[in-house]
C-alpha cells in the first residue's frame, strides 16, 4: 500500500514538473532549432527576451532542479555568445566597407560595397537584415543596400557600441540622433572579438613574397587610428603605404605571429569572404619554403609543387 502511494505521488511529481517546465522547453526548443537550422540569422532579441522572462519570473522554474536551470543558462549563454560574434563581425564589415547615408528628406540608407568574389558577406547581411544586392554601375563590385526603417533600426541597435572606425561612429551617431536612439560608447576591443574577422573580410589581404620567403596578413585604411588599435590588441606594425601618408597598412609578417593569428584567432573567428581560403594555404607556403620548393627550378619535382601551389593560391581570387 505504502509503495503504491509513493509511486503515485512520485508520478504526479514528475507530471507536475513536466507541466511547469513545458513552456520553457517549448520556447527554448523553438529558439534553438531556429538558431541551428539557420546559423546566419541573429536571434539576439529573442534570446535576450527569453533570458529576461526566466530571470524576471523565477516562478517559471518552480519545481525544476538547479541543474536544469544552470544547464539552460549555459545553453542560452552559448547561443548569445555566438550571436554576439556575428554582430561583431557585422561591425567589422560596416566599419570597413559600409556607409550610412542620410538623404535631404531624412531617409537613411546603409550600403556595403565589396568585390564580387566576396559576395558571400553580402548574402549574409541580406539574410540578417533584408535589403537588396546589385552590381555597381561599373560592375566591378557588388553592393548591398538597406533602406527600410525596421532594418536600419535593427542594425544601429545591434552595432551600437561595437564600432571602432571614427568615420563610421560619426555616421552612426547622426543616424541614432535621427531615430532617437541613445549612442553607446565603444567597449574596449579585446582579442576574442569577431570584429577583426569582419574588418579583414572587407579591408584585409593575405599575400606572400617568394624571394623573401615571407607571408603577410594586412589591413589597409586611410586613417591610422583604427590600425593602431589593432596593434595594441593583436600586435604587428602600422606602415604608411605611400610617401604622402594618405593610406596605412597594419601588417603581421613574422612567421610565428602569422601562424598564431591564424590558429588562435581566425580559426575561431572565420572570415566569410574568399580570403578565408588563403589562411590554410599560408601554412602550405611555409612548408614549401622550408623544403626549398620556392627556390627550386620550376622543372624539378620540388619546383612543380610550388607551381601547383601558386595555381591554388590564385584560384581563391576567382569568384565562384
Ligand atoms: C620581396 O622581397 C624582396 C627581398 O626581401 C624585396 O627586395 C622585394 O621588394 C619584395 N617584393 C615586394 C613586392 O614587396
TrEMBL record:
Keyword Transmembrane helix: yes
Main function: Mitochondrial DNA endonuclease involved in intron homing.
Name of the featured protein: LAGLIDADG homing endonuclease
Record GO terms (molecular function): endonuclease activity
Record InterPro entries: Homing_endonucl, LAGLIDADG_dom
Domain Homing endonuclease LAGLIDADG, residue spans: 91-161, 196-286
Superkingdom assignment: Eukaryota
Keyword set includes Repressor: no
Entry's transmembrane regions: 7-32
Pfam families: LAGLIDADG_1
SUPFAM superfamilies, per the entry: Homing endonucleases
The entry's keywords: Endonuclease, Hydrolase, Membrane, Mitochondrion, Nuclease, Transmembrane, Transmembrane helix
Amino acid at each position: 500500500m505504502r509503495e503504491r502511494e509513493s509511486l503515485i505521488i512520485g508520478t504526479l511529481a514528475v507530471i507536475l514538473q513536466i507541466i511547469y517546465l513545458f513552456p520553457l522547453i517549448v520556447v527554448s526548443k523553438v529558439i534553438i532549432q531556429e538558431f541551428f537550422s539557420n546559423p546566419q540569422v541573429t536571434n539576439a532579441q529573442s534570446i535576450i527576451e527569453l533570458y529576461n522572462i526566466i530571470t524576471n519570473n523565477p516562478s517559471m522554474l518552480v519545481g525544476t532542479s538547479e541543474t536544469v536551470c544552470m544547464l539552460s543558462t549555459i545553453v542560452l549563454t552559448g547561443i548569445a555568445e555566438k550571436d554576439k560574434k556575428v554582430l561583431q563581425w557585422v561591425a567589422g564589415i560596416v566599419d570597413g566597407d559600409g556607409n550610412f547615408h542620410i538623404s535631404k528628406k531624412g531617409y537613411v540608407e546603409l550600403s556595403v560595397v565589396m568585390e564580387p568574389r566576396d559576395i558571400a558577406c553580402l548574402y549574409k547581411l541580406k539574410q540578417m537584415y533584408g535589403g537588396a544586392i546589385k552590381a555597381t554601375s561599373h560592375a566591378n563590385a557588388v553592393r548591398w543596400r538597406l533602406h527600410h526603417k525596421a532594418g536600419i533600426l535593427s542594425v544601429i541597435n545591434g552595432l551600437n557600441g561595437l564600432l571602432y572606425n571614427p568615420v563610421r561612429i560619426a555616421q552612426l551617431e547622426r543616424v541614432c540622433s535621427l531615430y532617437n536612439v541613445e549612442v553607446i560608447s565603444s567597449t574596449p576591443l579585446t582579442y576574442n572579438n569577431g570584429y577583426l574577422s569582419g574588418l579583414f573580410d572587407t579591408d584585409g589581404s593575405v599575400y606572400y613574397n617568394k624571394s623573401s620567403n615571407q607571408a603577410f596578413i594586412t589591413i589597409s585604411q586611410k586613417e591610422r587610428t583604427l590600425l593602431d588599435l589593432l596593434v595594441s590588441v593583436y600586435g604587428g606594425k602600422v606602415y604608411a603605404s605611400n610617401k604622402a601618408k594618405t593610406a596605412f597598412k597594419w601588417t603581421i609578417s613574422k612567421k610565428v605571429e602569422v601562424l598564431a593569428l591564424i590558429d588562435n584567432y581566425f580559426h575561431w573567428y572565420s572570415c566569410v569572404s574568399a580570403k578565408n581560403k588563403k589562411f590554410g594555404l599560408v601554412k602550405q607556403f611555409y612548408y614549401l619554403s622550408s623544403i626549398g620548393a620556392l627556390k627550386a627550378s620550376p622543372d624539378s619535382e620540388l619546383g612543380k609543387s610550388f607551381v601547383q601551389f601558386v595555381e591554388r593560391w590564385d584560384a581563391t581570387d576567382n569568384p565562384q
